[in-house]
Amino acid sequence: MEKNSKLILTFISFIFLWSCANQIAPSGGEVDKIPPEVLETYPQNRAINFNDNHFDIKFSEYVDRLSVQNAIFISPSLKYGFEYNWSGKTLHLEFRDTLQQNTTYTITIGTDIVDLNNRNKLALPYTFTFSTGSKIDTAKISGKVYADSPSGIFIYAFKNKNDFNPETDKPNYISQVGNDGRFKLNGLSEGDYKIFALKDKSQDMFYNPNEDEFGIQSKKITIDSLNQIYDNLNIFLTKEDTISPRLSSAFMKDRNHILVEFNESIDSSKINSDNFYLFDSLSNKKINVNYFYKYDAKPKQFYIALGDSSSFQNYFLVAENIYDFCGNKTAEDKIQFLFKNEKDTLLIKPIKVFGEYENGKVDYEDPKVKIQFNDGIFLDEVNSRIKIEDNKKNNLIFSLNKIDDALFEIKLNNKLKQATDYYLFFDAKNLKNYSEKAIDTTYKFTFTTNSELEFTGASGKIIDDDSTTLIVNLKSVNNKKNYIKKIDKNKYFNFEKVTPDKYLLWAFKDKNKNDKYDFGKIKPFEYSEEFYFYPDTLNLRARWPVGDIDFNIKNK
To answer: Where is the SbsA Ig-like domain positioned along the sequence (predicted)?
Structure first.
């Protein structure tokens, strides 16, 4: 049946291409990198007293006809859409509905349209408006969606709807964002508006929770005779997650180690070995897990380690109270796996010692060092075997915290010297694995502190009349580094000890004072928090901090 379906689809595609023979692009020559453009439309932009039953769009080159049919929108929306007819590069669309009297309509030609020659996309959405009456609505809402790849994101506007549901309701107005994330909603009539950005994964024009990314406005938007233009509407995208994490696989590496994988990223800070156990449904036996750790496992994967399980017959791994990063909880889940009766040959040892800065360097003012093991080990065992010295063999006092059962953080009690080597020793004598084997050796690691000469900084003032708490973020362009400051009552900010790089500066109003950015909610509807980006990228170089930054968010 599947083979027949593929043949049918191939045949339909052949018929379509044959019927569109006049679209075939010439071969040879340079690679076409020029996007298609809209050359002209009928009616012209801002036409009034329109009473025809169709509109026309002329493109600069031949475009893929299937891509067009999913990329043309009319606002306010029509129940039955259009009929599509082509004449060369010109598209003729007939209305299947009767247009409303004295109404301004906006046609949006979206960025999903591609040319036939090299599938170049339309660079920016193209819009034009016309009115069936003697005047045209000129109100507009514009802004920017901040996303890694914003092209193709939809903007929906729901008018005078307190309880809108994008899962089932069609918007009154539709637009799309361009490659730079900017968007416009033109030809709006007076009323209250809910603005909703949607990355429509299934392209069904509706919001699908747990699948589509969405964004919501930060404040009430009203269009009236005195307020015809609303600019600078900034929107972040987020993804709703209401699904609890589940076990997706369990693979036994040897009789003492199991590699566990989940269907999504889990919050391992809320999980330890007590959240797991092995269960034999035939003998009703239970074995507790000794260790839970990440080490070199892939995303969504973790290791668990336990004592001998060879007495089991029917193997199940049970996980309890597992959380994801959205707070969704799985009370209990279980998965069956195949037993592997191989002995543990992994000798427990430290793999590396590193700090939080580039090249593993350690902060000299607040020194913290991480030590990574290749297998699970108890905290007290690690603590009793570590010694840290300076270059004069003076012992340094420290405290030890567990991140997971194979990764630990060492916090030194005192500041260290800048740009200086220190030495960590780990005595592995009689440190046995599950097979009672050990390496009788002492491991030595060198770690180096950084210096103030390696850093830069940024400081300035937020210009704003609002007294709402502001939180400022300094985020590297490559997303690898992010510094956060809650500004003082004088609205000054000062980022010190910043790693040199190119940075974006942005701030948000923390209305609920929870110290994090809130994206808003659809059900029940909640506004997002207002945010603003400083217009310039900051090129922060070592020893050359940038000061006196005036970050103006007033009246924006």
So the answer is: 32-132, 361-449
Around Cβ 269, how many Cβ atoms within 10 Å?
Answer: 10
Residue 2 contacts by C-beta under 8 Å, 6 or more apart in sequence? none
Q: Is the pLDDT of residue 260 over 60?
A: yes
pLDDT digits (tens, 9 = 90+) for 324-361: 999 999 999 999 999 888 888 889 999 999 999 999 99
pLDDT (tens digit, 9 = 90+) per residue, 269-308?
Answer: 999 999 999 998 888 889 999 999 999 999 999 999 998 7
pTM, rounded to two decimals: 0.83
CA 322 to the chain's CA centroid = 22
As given in the structure block, the two tokens for residue 66 are: 């299937």
CATH of domain 31-239: 2.60.40.1220
Among residues 415, 371, 409, 373, which one has the least CA distance to residue 396?
415
DSSP 3-state of 319: strand
CATH number of 350-452: 2.60.40.3710
Could you give the angle at the alpha carbon of 360 between the alpha carbons of 354 and 364, nearest 5°?
Answer: 90
Please write the tens of the pLDDT for every residue from 533-543: 999 999 999 99
- What pLDDT is recorded for position 28? 54
The CA distances from residue 471 to 141, 144, 234, 456, 493, in Å, are 26, 20, 16, 20, 9
pLDDT at 409: 99
Q: Which CATH superfamily is domain 455-552 in?
A: Carboxypeptidase-like, regulatory domain (2.60.40.1120)
Q: How many C-beta atoms lie closer than 10 Å to residue 402's C-beta?
A: 16
Quick one: tokens of 212?
């589509």
CA nearest neighbour of 167 among 107, 221, 209, 230: 209
Of 467, 463, 471, 473, which is closest to residue 529 (Cα–Cα)? 471
Residue 65's nearest CA partner among 44, 93, 45, 41 is 93
Contact between 236 and 177 (Cβ < 8 Å): no
329 touches 346 (CB < 8 A): no
Altogether, the residues listed in the chain come to a count of 556
Q: Give the span between the Cα atoms of 352 and 339, in whole angstroms.
A: 31
- Same fold for the domain at 247-336 and the one at 350-452? yes
Q: Which of 413, 411, 396, 259 is nearest to 338 (CA)?
A: 259
Domain boundary assignment for the chain = 31-239, 247-336, 350-452, 455-552
Q: Which two tokens stand for residue 48?
A: 């009034």
The SS3 assignment for 132 reads coil
Would you state the CATH architecture of domain 247-336?
Sandwich (2.60)
d(CA 355, CA 218): 39
